[in-house]
Amino acid sequence: LGEFLVELHRLSFREADWGEKISRTRGSNVVTTGSSGSVSVDINSDGTVVVHGDIDIAGGPVLENAILEHQGDGPLAIDLADVSFIDSSGLRSLLNASRRAQHSGSHVVLRGIGPEVSRLLQITGTTERFVIEEPRD
Amino acid sequence: MMLRVLEPLRLNLEADATSLAPLRRAVGDWLTRAGAHDVYDVVLAVDEAVSNAIEHAGLAKTSEITVNVKLAGELLQVHVADHGRWKEQALDEARGRGLSIMMAVMDDVSIEHRDGETCLVMSRRLHKT
What we know:
The complex is a heterodimer of chains A (137) and B (129).
Chain A: H1 2-10, E1 34-36, E2 39-43, E3 49-55, H2 60-70, E4 76-86, H3 88-103, E5 108-111, H4 115-123, E6 131-133
Parallel strand pairs in A: 3-4, 4-5, 5-6
Antiparallel strand pairs in A: 1-2, 2-3
Chain B: E1 9-14, H1 20-33, H2 39-56, E2 64-72, E3 75-82, H3 88-95, H4 98-105, E4 108-114, E5 117-125
Antiparallel strand pairs in B: 1-2, 2-3, 3-5, 4-5
Helix pairs in contact in B: 1-2, 2-4
């Protein structure tokens, strides 16, 4: 256990640490909106993915599926103005989206993020993976 | 302003994702009443700990996870106990995710296995609001 914890201390937040283990299954059902317990996701007419609620292990997969269905080759905007809690489940989906966008020479815009989302990005050193627009205080 | 002395918070939760939202509210309310700063950091760490227990401990949904939060002076201590035994693979997977976040926001994180129970213990010196 001691060795394990020492190893933990060496962990950094490299890209490889995030998002690799999530299984991406594109089902035959096209999900335009979804909800699960604490979260719901809508798609705006301009293609913005709008998230409401808390993103945890119950809500993370809902966000992941919505992003997978709506992410094209261009920039993807995700509106988080109505999100007051996010954990590593939600961050994984955002980073997966960022990685896919970068592969096609594009980027992910996070709009309206509050102090919680901002803090999680800061803790994990992942702020620079996104374009941040209109953050809330 | 001093941190207020509160009765320790003790929660018994079903090992299911739907337990997380009420857990976050209870821990957040408790920390706010104690006059703690950085409530989100601690709520995040507890959420990650319980999420790991739910996802990886191989628990039946009906089994319970016990969360204890207490304050000794400015030292916050959190215990998350379950009756599952985290699989090696689960530990590997958790390393890059929740545990890293817990270690970033708490001063100390350790895992103890004893008597068929896995207990994750975290502590952090709190700042006052």
